Amino acid sequence: MPTRLFLFCFFFLISLSADAQRFKAGLRAGIAGTQISGDQLGGFDKAGIVAGGLVSTSLSQKFDLGFEIFYVQKGSRKNADPDNGDLVSYLLRLNYFEVPVLLQWKYSKRFSFEAGPTFGALVGTLEEDEFGALDQPRDFSNFELGVGAGMSVHIVDGLYFNLRGTNSVLPVREHVSGQDYRLNRGQYNSALLFTFHYIFNKKTTTE
How far apart are CA 176 and CA 36, in angstroms? Predict the structure, then answer.
């Protein structure tokens, strides 16, 4: 089901980008630093790849609406440190197809800012410790609802650098105890995305 949803969104993006009179289309690629809140580990220590496509259309002189589809690797990591007597290691890898819908504010010709909801479909998981893959890993939700905010810097014609932070607003997995307290209802994805994106075509307008 998540793969079919991604394919639907991917072909929808292609159909939009084919209309160069209304939309700008491009590709995005880079890396993500991620963590899972609620797993007793701190820091964006899990690195992953980010790759996909995007389209956007102008709402006004200052605002665009952006729609993206990309593959992103999230999760958590703790490396063992045997030199200091720490033999415990942990790796959680969560593979998502993510679909952000972002309102983009063109602050200047060089800088723009963005914010909006993100929707993720989980397509693969791996969880292991120093003994290997866990025999009975706890299940994750198949879908993720989150929010994202970031900024883009124009480098040269068509090429931009983007920094974005995202966080799930609904838990992706329950706590080990199964309990929750107020807004802390389980484990949540957090990610910092460092990507470049290239815009193939510029939107043309008619007076």
Answer: 13
Q: How far is CA 197 from CA 2, 51, 98, 108, in A?
A: 25, 10, 16, 18
**Is residue 207 assigned to a domain?**
no
Q: In a 3-state reduction of DSSP, which class is residue 17?
A: helix
Residue 197 corresponds to which tokens in the numbers above?
A: 């994106």
* Count: domains in the chain: 1
Does 21 fall in a domain?
no
Q: Is residue 205 part of a domain?
A: no
The answer to whether 70 and 102 have CB atoms below 8 angstroms apart is: no
* pLDDT tens-place string over residues 16-73: 555 555 788 899 999 999 999 866 677 888 999 999 999 999 999 999 999 999 999 9
Chain segment 131-165, per-residue pLDDT in tens: 888 877 788 999 999 999 999 999 999 999 999 99
The one-character DSSP state at 84 is G
Q: Structural domain of residue 175, as residue ranges?
A: 2-16+28-199
| 106 located within any domain | yes
Cβ atoms 125, 142 nearer than 8 A? no
The CATH number of whichever domain residue 103 belongs to comes to 2.40.160.20
